[in-house]
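Working notes for the structural subgroup meeting. M.R. asked for a predicted model of this chain before we commit to crystallization trials. I am recording the input and output together here so anyone reviewing the notebook later can reproduce the run.

Input as submitted:
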Amino acid sequence: MSFVSARIGYRYSKTKISSSFIALINFFSVLGLCLGVAALIVVLSVMNGLEDQLKQRILGVVPHIVITQPVLNPVINQLKPELQDSIIATMPFIERQALVQSAQDLSGVSLQGVEPDTMQHYSSLNDHFVFNDLAILVPKQYNVVIGYALARKLNVQVGDTMRLILPSSSRFTPLGRVPTQRNVTVGGIFNLQSVEDSQTIFMHIDDVHRLARIKYTPSQAQTSDSTRWFIRDPFAYAELSAALNALSIPHTTWRERQGPLFDAVKMEKNMMSLMLLLVIAVAAFNIISALVMVVIEKTPDIAILRTQGLTAWQIMQIFMFNGLFNGIKGAGAGVILGVILVYGLNPLLILLDVPLALSGDGQPVPVLLQWYNVMWIMGVSLLLCVLATLPPALKALRLQPAQSLKYE
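Returned structure, recorded in token form:
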């Protein structure tokens, strides 16, 4: 790599707009690259923010992994140490499909029997309560915690009574077989602003076992019909699931419930990235037209440099460096502009009074800037810029000094 080539290429990239039409074309190609990089950073940050919101509001409550057999630690002990470290907590767990009925309406729900202390420490539910929290779930009091959407549908408030019906558990009476049912009290209301608000209710695990007619004591937790695992990163479930399959342990994961939703978000994120990456590619390859004109304009200079001893490869490097420096200017400015827009997006939307309330927690748009995405965008942009310099550089490589200076 020649220092002389880099220096001359840097000089060509600093040509002022007022002194050359080529510099004007060069400026707009760099500007297009800058705007494309900034747009990609902003869009990826917004999509990352949306994915993070979904992860907190849905995967923070949905069971990550449920072992559908009455075992606890023996399963964990059979896993590799690194997999054991990814499991941050376990608890006995029971889930049943149920009906809740109020004076106003009837709704089908998923009834989850949980240990309140464990759920408060290892789920995101405790951060989204409107009234009370999981501490209200006390054994033998038959309190339930329901979502805000379900409370509105049933028109109930904290302290109201509902009828809970378990079709899977029944008893025989003189009138025939009837489902287990009991009046329960609304002890708390949470608001996740997700589908879980309308289809999930929580009750103390002891009370659910009584309703389901399953013998259970906290000192013998293995008598619960399943075990819930909380893992450090819900998206890293696959390796744990594969290990459990290898051990022939029946289990379910969060993907069986919410997988399609996260797949849709990922596909949308990838498609948006691809479209904006094409915009960056167009801007990068616009550099070709500017460099071709530079080669034509600098033909005498190229011929003189060749006669002074520069090799064809060094001449080619001049224009490769020229494109690289333009790419650094465009991508660098785009990164700076994109980061500023990401951190200033919510205040800007509030200032302009743009109604894009997506997060529900006081900020119009959920935003999460990930720096490895920024570095990836920067690297791809520079690579495209270098690739765009090859045709003009090859054209300069083929110039003949004698013929170029013939009419000079």
